[in-house]
Each structure stands twice: as structure tokens, then as C-alpha cells.
Amino acid sequence: MPSPKDVYIAVIGAGGVGKCFLSQLEILSNRLSNNSSSPKLSLVLVSRSKKTLYSPQYTALPFSNLASSLDSSTQEPLSLPKIIEYLAAAPAKVVLVDNTSSQDVADAYPQVLSKGISIVTPNKKAFSGSSKLWQDIFTAASTSGAKVYHESSVGAGLPVISTLKELVDTGDEVTRIEGVFSGTMSFLFNSFAPTEGKGGKWSEEVKKAKDLGYTEPDPRDDLNGLDVARKLTILARLAGLQVESPTSFPVQSLIPKDLESVGSGEEFVQRLHEFDTQMEDVKLEAEKEGKVVRFVGSIDVGQKEVKVGLENFDRSHPIAALKGSDNIISFYTKRYGANPLIIQGAGAGGEVTAMGVTGDLIKVLERLS
């Protein structure tokens, strides 16, 4: 029989973030096992698109050789409804860790939570989808008592969501949120329009970012601004605004019209140089004002305005002075006055994203015990 301190962990998604999370979970599990008053964690399921490894009797899967055990698993892959059924029948508390960016998994959150299964996830789609899905998720959680945390859905491991929630919950008045919310866009503009020196051609910087793995396989998935729009939707909702979806406010796309419908990401990168003058003009316009151009998102809470796009900043501004692929998020509030509360650091990468997920898991364990 499981003890009241047992918590079963199920993980969907074992790719980049998933792998990092599983290694952090092993460390956490070992650390907790040395303390008799801590919950005992048992990993009972790991699933990815075509493979599932799970324990029908809810005994813990060993962490040693987990990746190769999953690769060679001959267990029939479980559909999402089957996974939910399996977890709902578990004889102890369960936390589902969704490391995917799947809309299908996100759409199932209300059902998962209604069965008392807690969720931690970096999946933006659950919290930036329709406002109905947002409502259904939190209604299901409050009704069943299950917990749902999604720190890594904005800013990877940076404490963006927890900070905003604390500001709101303690009664501060958030007036404006502004920042660079994409590691990809940060990297591109820091090298295309640096505060010192000339910077490279736009098409060359995009190709470099793609070769380094900073962009999606098709860079248009970054340049369309939708990733930033999703993050702003989440923050705007947490700040109290009714935002219907990431497409319900102005989002500037940096994809040239003529390249929107080309067949592949490869072709897009090959032809992007034809449109370098467009971005060069944008850069020069900013330079005439003694400024640099950056791709930012902003939320004006009072005016109920959310927008994503290019803006010019003084070279001394914290947003202009970012390095590498760092994110920066500024919270302007009544308490903090003219000087915003600023959170800055790595906003992308498997290890830091997984850290946010692991941190959320620890919060859930504290609240379940």
C-alpha cells in the first residue's frame, strides 16, 4: 500500500526540456528520499509521441538508463485519454508534468485537473489559448483541489509569473509591463543593432541564429511575433485584463509579405537577403534618433492595451543593453513608482526551462503534503 506521503509523477514529453527535467527530477527524488518527512516520489510514466514507458502497478520506474528504456519500450503507446484514465486510478496523489507544446494536451488540462491530478508545465498553449480554456483550467483546479503551475510558460526559469502573481495578490497595482520576451529576438537584435559597433546584415543574423539553434527549425515561427504574443496574453490575464487570444491585439510580424508562403524554412532563409534593405532602413531610422531598435512586448493595464512589435530605445536603456539571448521584463507598479521591478536573465534553454518546471513541482509537493 502506498503511504500518504507517496506522490506519483507522470511525464509527457521527453525531448530537450523533458530530458533536462528528468535529470533534475532524479536529483530531487534522491534528495527527498534522504528526509523521512518529505514526500516519496515515484516516476510511473514517461511518454513521448510514439513511445510510452509506464508501470501498470504504479511501482517506480528506475532512473538509470531511462532514455534507452524508453527508446526500447515495447509497451503499447497510451493515448491521452488512456494516460488520464491510468493516472486517475492511481492509489496516491499524482502530478502530471507536461513538457510538450501540444495544443491537444493543453486542451485536456480541465479534465486532468477535475480528476484531482495536479499539473506543472512550460506549455504556453494552455494559458494563452481561448479565454474559455483559461477559465476552465482554473475552475477545474479550484473545484478539485488539484494544483496547476506554469512558471516556465513565460521566461523559462526566470521568476516572472510568480513575481507578477505576488504583486497582484499582495494588492500592488500593476500599471505597465514591458520587455524583451523572446531569447531568439533578443539574440537577433543584439547582434543586428548593437549599442556599439555596426552589426550584421539582417538575413545573415537570422541564418546565424538558426545555425546556433536559437530559432525554431523554421525561423518564421519566431519572426511572426506569435511566441511573444502568447507570453503577453498570459501576463495580461494574470494582471487582470480580459484578453481573448494572442491574435486579439496588434502583433508586428517581421516576415516579408513575399516570403510568408514560401514552402520551407530553408527557402525562407535563402531568400531573406532580398529584403535586407527593409530592416536596414528600420535600423538607420533608429540611429538617426541616437537609438537602437528592439522587438518588445508591452501591456498598458490602465489603457487595457497589449502590443508586440519594434520600438526604438536610448542606448542607455536596460532593454537596449541586453546581451546574448537574455530576456528582460519590467514591472511598473504603484509601489515601485518610477523605477520598475526588473527581472533579467536567460529566457531560453533546456536546463533553465526545466528548472522552472522542477521549481513548480516543488511548490506542488509542498502544497500536497
Annotated CATH architecture of the largest domain: 2-Layer Sandwich
Helix-strand pattern: EHEEHHEHHEHHEHEHHHHHHEEEEH
| Straight-line distance between termini | 17 Å
Low-confidence spans = none
The major beta sheet can be summarized as: 6 strands, mixed
Count of DSSP H/I helices: 15
Can you describe what's shown?
By secondary structure, the chain is an alpha/beta fold. The protein has two domains: 6-156 and 352-367, NAD(P)-binding Rossmann-like Domain (Rossmann fold, 3-Layer(aba) Sandwich); 160-347, Dihydrodipicolinate Reductase, domain 2, CATH 3.30.360. 40% of the residues lie in helices and 20% in strands. The chain contains 15 helices and eleven strands. It has helices spanning 16-33, 66-71, 80-88, 103-107, 109-114, 125-128, 131-144, 160-169, 183-192, 202-211, 220-223, 226-238, 265-271, 276-288, 350-368; strands at residues 6-12, 40-48, 51-54, 93-98, 118-120, 148-149, 174-180, 291-300, 305-314, 326-333, 341-346. The strands form two sheets. It has a six-stranded mixed sheet. Strands 9-8-7-10-11 form a five-stranded antiparallel sheet. Helix 1 (16-33) links the parallel strand 1 (6-12) and strand 2 (40-48). Helix 1 crosses helix 15 (350-368) and helix 9 packs across helix 10. The longest helix has 19 residues, at 350-368. The two termini are 17 Å apart. The mean pLDDT is 94.
